[in-house]
User: Fold this.
Amino acid sequence: MKQPLDENQVEGLRKLTRNLRRFISIAALVLGFLFYAAIFDPSLGKLNRWIAEIGQTTDPSPQQVTESEPEVKEGIHLPTGLVAEGDYLLVAQHCTPCHSAKLVTQNRMTAEAWTSTIHWMQETQNLWDLGENEALIVAYLSTYYAPEETGRRKPLKVEEWYTLD
Assistant:
C-alpha cells in the first residue's frame, strides 16, 4: 500500500525536477554551441574533426596533416584556411592541435614577433619544442602572415612635377 508523500519529500522532488530541467537546458545550450561552432568554423570543417581537436586539447601533440588531405582551392587549404604554399602542412601540424588556424590567419607579425609568440606559447601554454621545424614555421608565417602596410590610400605616383603660375 502506497503512502502519500509528506511535504519534505514533495519539496525534494520539486527541487530535483528544477535542477534536472536546468541541467538539461545548460546541456542543450552547450551542445548547440558546439554544433554551431563545428558547422560555421571553416577551419574545423566537419563535426568529427572538431570533436577530434577537442579530444586533443588535453594532450596536444603535432597532428599528422598530409598532402593527401584534399581541398586546396584558390591557394587556400580549406580545412585550415592557411595559404597553401611552402610549409603550410607543417604549420597546420604544429599549430592546430591547440588552437584554430584562424588564430594564425588573423594575425600579421614579423619573424621576430612570430618567434616571440612561439616562445611565449612554449613557456606558458605547453607548446612542445619545435626543434628544426621552428625555423621553417617562422619562415612560413613571416612570409604569408607578415605585417601589411596599409593606409588610407596608396601614395600618389608623380610622373612629372610642374610649377603653379
Remarks:
- The chain has a mean pLDDT of 83.
